[in-house]
């Protein structure tokens, strides 16, 4: 279940994806499959080759992408990997949402 997501942030994420950029969106999220995790970062790009290459840099496999017909395919980052990648990408504002 997603919550704490601002419409403006979602729109900006989609616009970046539409422009072929690697886009990050962190929001609160609860899923019983991942106890103790309360946020997720969605990393998307309309250029799937670019997204896969970005994922490989961070040790992510292409089969972990949530392939979407609506054009907003993305990786879901959670837990320690989420924090590690956000730090490497220097996305301090996204990291603040983990607190």
Automatic annotation (TrEMBL):
Protein name according to UniProt: YneQ
Source organism: Cytobacillus firmus
Lineage: Bacteria, Bacillati, Bacillota, Bacilli, Bacillales
